[in-house]
Amino acid sequence: MTYPITPLFLLMNETNLLMNEFMEVSVLLFEEFETLDVFGPVEIFGRLQEQYKVKFYSLSGARISNSHGVSQDTLPLDSLNNRVDIFLIPGGYGTRKEVDNEELIKEIKTIAEKSQFVLTVCTGTSLLARTGLLDQKLATSNKRAFDWVITMGPQVNWQRKARWTVDGKFYTSSGVSAGMDMTLGFISDRHGYEFARNVANEVEYNWTEDKEEDPFYKLYEN
Amino acid sequence: MTYPITPLFLLMNETNLLMNEFMEVSVLLFEEFETLDVFGPVEIFGRLQEQYKVKFYSLSGARISNSHGVSQDTLPLDSLNNRVDIFLIPGGYGTRKEVDNEELIKEIKTIAEKSQFVLTVCTGTSLLARTGLLDQKLATSNKRAFDWVITMGPQVNWQRKARWTVDGKFYTSSGVSAGMDMTLGFISDRHGYEFARNVANEVEYNWTEDKEEDPFYKLYEN
């Protein structure tokens, strides 16, 4: 009897799946986060309860709200001491203030460095860009805010036309709804296309499957 | 000098706009609501702060959560004593229990009767169907759960193939993401297509503009 040999790097990538453990999706919140940047990806990760568990974090660990009337309990970021599986950074008007919050940017850098994956949605990319960790890496962001976001990371390899980008462990998406397309793309990369397609069908989402298909970049071109 | 004569019914429909007042979007929550059913429409209404104000309600008025890790503060439903502008009813696994919650169904009926508009998302249609208010009216729901939902309202004019339906003041949508298409359709009906198209562009959402275009119904056909 023979056994197929599985390369070690494949085993390491799939450790959580093989051990039948979920990965934690650690979602960063701050005042005036964008509602759908958060709850689009949370809908997708949240329903995959055998694979993922969503938790919300903020600098203070307090309840965080936005002007859409949304409020959410959070844990303090500094309780993320050990392994960080997936770090999700949303955008929103709050980023305009938080890019200058040195304590938060420092925490984001520390957590992103030890995260297995870092996903940013919309103007959330500006916060990650401020850490310097995206320098020389592919990234995109909200199309309306693009010219502002790129000033937060002059060394980033910005892709104006992209629904989302992947560069190593960093996934970045275009504006608001694109966070769902990116999350489904992430699910596809980890669990295969058919698995992701099934999730999209379950939530009846018109998934833009091709990360280079970006119907919105032209609207806000200079 | 002459003044154009505006028919009274137009003035009444547009009273809130003319008075430069926002309409309240009263969102019903219950344990195990579906995340995106709620926060997709809330993203759209929430960003239109000159026109709409989102508030969350539940039978108990407590903080309501679901298994995606989401929690949201609510006001008690019985505090909705006066005018109700827009009543939004989401779906989710919680509906399987709540269709038998007589107190909740009675409250939903009372509020829906006095609401200017009632919008249901996904299996949220089952809760409204249970009140009898949808009898003989067009309605749709989540495609996977359709055969269960229709048992909650045998006299409803169910449309299996529909992204969303409109029948008088009642808007009902297909599953999860379709709540965003319906909300943009509602915005289009009230403020015009260009206004709604602009909102879709802002959130970079691939809006299914035609309510009869439903790519998902075939997947779960009997």
Verbal overview:
The structure is a homodimer of 222-residue chains. The first copy, chain A, is an alpha/beta fold and 222 residues long. Helices cover 34% and strands 19% of the residues of chain A. Chain A has a seven-stranded mixed beta sheet with strand order 5-2-1-6-7-11-10, with helices on both faces. A two-stranded antiparallel ribbon of chain A has the order 3-4. In chain A, strands 8-9 form a two-stranded parallel sheet. Chain A starts with 7 loop residues before the first helix and ends in a 20-residue tail after the last helix. At the A-B interface, helix 3, strand 2 and strand 4 of A face helix 3, strand 2 and strand 4 of B.
How are the elements arranged and paired?
The structure is a homodimer of 222-residue chains.
Chain A: H1 8-13, H2 15-18, E1 23-28, H3 35-47, E2 52-58, E3 64-65, E4 71-72, E5 75-76, E6 84-89, H4 94-98, H5 102-114, E7 115-120, H6 124-130, E8 138-139, H7 146-149, E9 157-158, E10 164-167, E11 170-173, H8 178-191, H9 193-202
Parallel strand pairs in A: 1-2, 1-6, 2-5, 6-7, 7-11, 8-9
Antiparallel strand pairs in A: 3-4, 10-11
Helix pairs in contact in A: 3-8, 8-9
